[in-house]
UniProtKB/TrEMBL annotation:
<dbReference type="Pfam" id="PF00162">
    <property type="entry name" value="PGK"/>
</dbReference>
<dbReference type="GO" id="GO:0004618">
    <property type="term" value="F:phosphoglycerate kinase activity"/>
</dbReference>
<protein>
    <recommendedName>
        <fullName>phosphoglycerate kinase</fullName>
        <ecNumber>2.7.2.3</ecNumber>
    </recommendedName>
</protein>
<dbReference type="GO" id="GO:0006096">
    <property type="term" value="P:glycolytic process"/>
</dbReference>
<dbReference type="Pfam" id="PF00044">
    <property type="entry name" value="Gp_dh_N"/>
</dbReference>
<dbReference type="InterPro" id="IPR036291">
    <property type="entry name" value="NAD(P)-bd_dom_sf"/>
</dbReference>
<dbReference type="InterPro" id="IPR020831">
    <property type="entry name" value="GlycerAld/Erythrose_P_DH"/>
</dbReference>
<dbReference type="InterPro" id="IPR020829">
    <property type="entry name" value="GlycerAld_3-P_DH_cat"/>
</dbReference>
<dbReference type="InterPro" id="IPR020828">
    <property type="entry name" value="GlycerAld_3-P_DH_NAD(P)-bd"/>
</dbReference>
<dbReference type="InterPro" id="IPR015824">
    <property type="entry name" value="Phosphoglycerate_kinase_N"/>
</dbReference>
<keyword id="KW-0560">Oxidoreductase</keyword>
<dbReference type="GO" id="GO:0016620">
    <property type="term" value="F:oxidoreductase activity, acting on the aldehyde or oxo group of donors, NAD or NADP as acceptor"/>
</dbReference>
<keyword id="KW-0547">Nucleotide-binding</keyword>
<keyword id="KW-0808">Transferase</keyword>
<dbReference type="GO" id="GO:0005524">
    <property type="term" value="F:ATP binding"/>
</dbReference>
<dbReference type="InterPro" id="IPR036043">
    <property type="entry name" value="Phosphoglycerate_kinase_sf"/>
</dbReference>
<dbReference type="InterPro" id="IPR020830">
    <property type="entry name" value="GlycerAld_3-P_DH_AS"/>
</dbReference>
Length: 710
């Protein structure tokens, strides 16, 4: 549990307090508010002109400085100067959420004298700004941060999504904003200022700092987004009129579907009005009926948000993200780590990644690395004496229209049984009433659900419930994710469990700890990334992020074909040379026009138009070996050639031998590289089980399946 102090108890402070009453990770231990008597607390909490919420709590005033709610003691301060507060005196409060608007710089927030402060407004200095579902993965342990404004928390998730998927050419917006406590009910004598006029009688043009914050949150949108604001006489819920031009032509229905799939942008399909969105927790609710397509690539999107309740929910999400990040960074046990949960007599849903390579003729397993990597988590849960474990995994790429013989787990049950001392029982009916009934009979402790991708809902999941999702949630009371290789997907089995108890296993913990050696590099070791593989498009995001984090990048494999033949990729390499990393390119290779024909050695700049490099050259291997000696950690993602073909596997086999002999700390980024490496004896520091997941984690600092725990 993480202890939190709340500075300010107005509209935002009250909303945050109420939402934290039953929170699983954060607990309010103290509040600082001036001109407030504890005897009025019950009335203040129970009565609200705007929000209607569950009032099922037991409040008791202990004395003039503290009260209890549901048995938890909370201290009440009344200090105007944060420097006079002693937050740490009470249960060692680590985080202060400042809702006053009076502490909006680093120097001001330092007066709180706690480890971490979250400002509930845009900063007045260059303090870092973070918004969940926009850039929270960029958080690296900063002590004082801003959660920006309510408008920014609503519009930036939409802009960030559109920029990432389609690229934004330009955008402008008007936020039609509900009145706030700073507005006057009647005119005052400062007539040179519009904000001094009566909000009851007027629509008041107002400034917004959202454009500046958007640039800080999404740097690629700098100069592309401009906005203004109108204050209107309603007491809560605002709407943004966003006009955006994309670089692609997309039908608006497709745009809506893609936004909905994100899981953090809601699409309202009913004809609702502002008050219908009171006390909603999602910050970005796009009104489908009120939005429209203006031209082939221009759109008007109308976005609702509860500027009090949903903003407060976002502040809580950011604080929780920071707390969990800092737990992991400080080598403490993450609150959602498997060892923090009691599994005795529990019904466990365990997601693993057993998507193994196999021979389709006799169903022999070519590499059981992913199975073996998950056993520690399974054994740990079994030792806790659960009522049952239902293991879930996909296998291959079935169409999702029902059972497909080729991809059934029944072919592998004998092999899988060899890993366990008790019977592993296959649930042949998948997610169904029959399976639910079978589980409830409790005849076994260990089950394997039939291939989860036989259900189309698995890969098409968009956050909404249906019969399959509801059945899935009835099959267990606690969810454990140890499927790191799938955590970059927002699939149903990864993010569809609605229960409160969600844990991750030993494999996920190991993967994250290892990849954080690259992302954080707290020991300041020199890191070289060797990036191979077939397609440059798959590596763009990885190369961009790596160039900011590691000391050197060696680019090889099929990427060189793209760079030599396409100015787009050549220019991209030149662009990232301006970042931290020194960029090395493969200088020669074995090329041919036909993969099944022995190749000829060419220097990279002399590659014939109709030829492609299928393996690295000897000159480049010698150079790469010399480069390796200059670094401490080697991250290898992507083989140097087409290793499935003996004609073009020599370069990768040679590199493998060189790395084994190097004595360096070697990290292999999963996928085909892991399969290749695991066929040989090696002494590598870590081999990841997730190719795409490891790339996404290094590129983005987070994964869809990780955000689910936050």
């Amino acid at each position: 549990m993480v202890y939190v102090g709340l500075n300010g108890f107005g509209r935002i402070g009250k909303s945050i307090f109420l939402q934290l009453l039953n929170h699983k990770t954060l607990k309010i231990k103290a509040i600082n508010v001036t001109k407030f008597e504890l005897e009025n607390l019950a009335s203040y909490l129970e009565n609200d002109s705007t929000h209607h919420y569950n009032k099922n709590w037991i409040l008791k005033i202990i004395d003039e400085t503290k009260f209890s709610i549901n048995g938890e003691t909370i201290h009440m301060f009344s200090q105007r100067d944060a420097g006079q507060l002693n937050w740490k005196k009470h249960d060692n409060i680590e985080y202060v959420i400042d809702c006053t608007g009076a502490y909006l710089t680093q120097d001001a927030c330092k007066k709180h004298n706690v480890e971490y402060v979250v400002m509930c407004a845009p900063p007045k200095d260059n303090s870092p700004q973070f918004v969940v579902n926009v850039n929270e993965e960029k958080y690296r342990g900063e002590n004082i941060v801003s959660n920006a404004s309510c408008t920014t928390n609503s519009i930036s998730p939409v802009l960030g999504f559109l920029e990432k998927k389609y690229k934004i050419v330009k955008a402008n917006f008007t936020t039609i904003h509900a009145t706030t406590a700073s507005q006057n009910t009647i005119d005052t004598n400062h007539f040179n200022n519009r904000t001094s006029r009566s909000i009851i009688n007027n629509i008041i043009p107002h400034s917004t700092g959202a454009s500046k914050s958007i640039k800080a949150l999404i740097p690629s949108l700098g100069g592309k987004v401009k906005g203004t604001s109108l204050r209107v006489p309603v007491n809560n819920v605002s709407i943004i009129d966003l006009n955006v031009t994309l670089s692609e032509n997309v039908k608006i229905d497709e745009l809506m579907d893609e936004m909905e799939k994100s899981g953090y942008i809601l699409i309202n399909k009913r004809k609702l009005v502002s008050s219908d969105f009171n006390t909603t927790t999602m910050p970005s609710i796009v009104d489908k009926d009120a939005s429209m397509q203006l031209t082939d690539n221009e759109y008007k999107l109308m976005i609702w948000y509860d500027n009090e309740w949903s903003y407060s929910a976002q502040v809580i999400r950011l604080t929780e993200y920071m707390a969990k990040y800092n737990y992991a960074t400080n080598n403490q046990v993450h609150p959602n780590f498997i060892t923090n949960f009691d599994f005795q007599n529990r019904e466990v849903i365990l997601r693993v990644d057993w998507n193994i390579p196999f021979n389709k003729t006799d169903y022999s397993i070519n590499d059981d690395f992913r199975i073996v990597s998950s056993l520690k988590t399974i054994e740990y849960i079994l030792e806790q004496n659960p009522k049952r474990i239902m293991i879930i995994s996909h296998l291959g790429r079935p169409k999702g229209n029902g059972y497909e013989e080729e991809y059934s787990w029944k072919h592998f049950m004998k092999h899988l049984q060899s890993y366990f001392n008790e019977q592993l029982h296959l649930l042949e009916n998948g997610i169904s009433i029959e399976t639910l009934n079978e589980l409830q009979e409790n005849k076994h402790r260990l089950y394997l659900l039939e291939n989860i991708r036989f259900h189309g809902e698995e890969t098409k999941y968009n956050g909404t419930n249906n019969e399959i999702v509801d059945l899935y949630n009835k099959m267990g009371t606690i969810f454990v994710n140890d499927a790191f290789g799938c955590m970059h997907r927002g699939h149903m089995s990864i993010t569809g469990f609605n229960g409160e108890e969600k844990a991750f296993g030993f494999l996920v913990q190991n993967e994250i700890n290892c990849l954080e050696l690259i992302n954080k590099n707290i020991n300041h070791e020199k890191i070289l990334a060797i990036v191979g593989g077939g397609k440059m498009d798959d590596k763009i995001a990885l190369l961009g992020e790596l160039s900011k984090k590691v000391d050197g990048i060696y680019v090889s494999g099929g990427n060189i074909n793209s760079i030599m033949k396409n100015d787009k990729y050549k220019n991209y390499i030149e662009e990232i040379k301006n970042n931290k990393s020194k960029i090395y390119l493969m200088k020669d290779g074995l090329a041919s026009s036909d993969l099944n024909v022995p190749g000829t050695y060419y220097k990279s700049e002399n590659l014939p138009k109709n030829n492609y490099f299928f393996d690295i050259g000897m000159q480049s291997i010698i150079e790469l070996n010399n480069i390796i000696q200059e670094y401490d950690i080697i991250f290898w993602n992507g083989t140097l050639g087409v290793v499935e073909n003996d004609l073009y596997s020599y370069g990768s086999r040679t590199l493998l031998e060189l790395l084994i002999k190097s004595g360096k700390k070697i990290i292999v980024g999963g996928g085909d590289t892991a399969c290749f490496v695991n066929k040989n004896n090696h002494n590598f520091y870590y081999v990841s089980t997730g190719g795409g997941a490891s790339i996404d984690y290094i590129s983005n600092g987070s994964l869809a399946g990780m955000k689910y725990f936050l």
